[in-house]
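Re-run requested by the PI after the first attempt was lost when the workstation crashed. Everything re-entered from the original request form. Ligand of interest: NAP.
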Amino acid sequence: MSSTINWGIIAPGRIAHKFAHDLQLAEGARLHAVASRSMERASAFANQYGAHHAYGSYEEILDCPDLDVIYIASPHTEHFAHTLMCLERKIPVLCEKPLAINSRQARQMVETARANDTFLMDAIWTRFIPAFEEALQLLDDGIVGPLKTIRADFGFRADFPPEHRIFNLALGGGALLDVGIYPIFLATLLWGKPDNVKASAAFGPTGADLSSAMIFEYTGNRLAILDASIAVNTSIEAFLYGETGTMHIHSRFHHPAKVAVSYYEKPTEYFGHNFTGNGYYHEILEVCECLRNGQKESKKLPLSFSLQLMEVLDWVRKEAGIVYPGID
Ligand SMILES: NC(=O)c1ccc[n+]([C@@H]2O[C@H](COP(=O)([O-])OP(=O)(O)OC[C@H]3O[C@@H](n4cnc5c(N)ncnc54)[C@H](OP(=O)(O)O)[C@@H]3O)[C@@H](O)[C@H]2O)c1
């Protein structure tokens, strides 16, 4: 592998543009190839970001010379097939969140990565945002004492037509997999799989969950209170209540720049760093570093964690009655 990591992108939609922007900022990485279902879209994207190769089908990019890794930015339901297609050709993959539509698919993706000795990572970029990493370190140092309650939300008013993927059940549409995954990621990262899950959802005309509310119960009288919406804007914050204080990860908590810690008898302290670009820069660096080191998964975001996260999402779906007909 050369010192510059050559990236390919499958599915150049909205998020792929933001990602490609950050790729331009990442030292030792460049956009090498892009594949769309339309040659016209692939060429336009390649021209915009200076990629050497453009393909009018996803299959063709698999034969691209000098490709080191592919970023998959298709809708949720397509992640499984697109990831398997790359891994079976031993091409490393960074796959957008959610890794899959359910844990059964995610398990098969992880098994395929391992069987082919090929790198795979879930694109939960939050894990690599500097202020979020600092928050994790401060919690680990016991800055607010043992945590007792987590509250986190992610809601935005999705101003899209009803046929958009976000409302389309056939593409895994709804609040849970689009944005609910972030508060669930936070609780699962900090406390693991809950002992019990309570969840309910409000559904829109397409059958997609417009809002979801969850309570995760953990041993030691700990609770995570989480919610997600694609119908309304919410504050997108996280509050981590410990025995000696509270950590507040400021909005938008999934890519924060500011973290506050307040205590019962001391003034509030502030921490944080700006993230680079749109924030995807940091996960790009992590993938590049893993590839240079010959790692097959990220130590900071291991595949065992991604599987656990998908299992928790499955559990919430079961409790809230969220179904993607014909998919599972
Ligand atoms: N990490 C983040 O912050 C973040 C933010 C937003 C979204 N995401 C994730 O990224 C993924 C894509 O989201 P997006 O907002 O970028 O979606 P989008 O704008 O709709 O783009 C998705 C692209 O996938 C391709 N595609 C392949 N099969 C498709 C199908 N059956 N229907 C529609 N499009 C299809 C299309 O590109 P071509 O036809 O040109 O190939 C389309 O432009 C989702 O899984 C989402 O969860 C992550």
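Saved to the shared folder this time. The chain has two domains: 5-125+280-294, 127-278+310-320.
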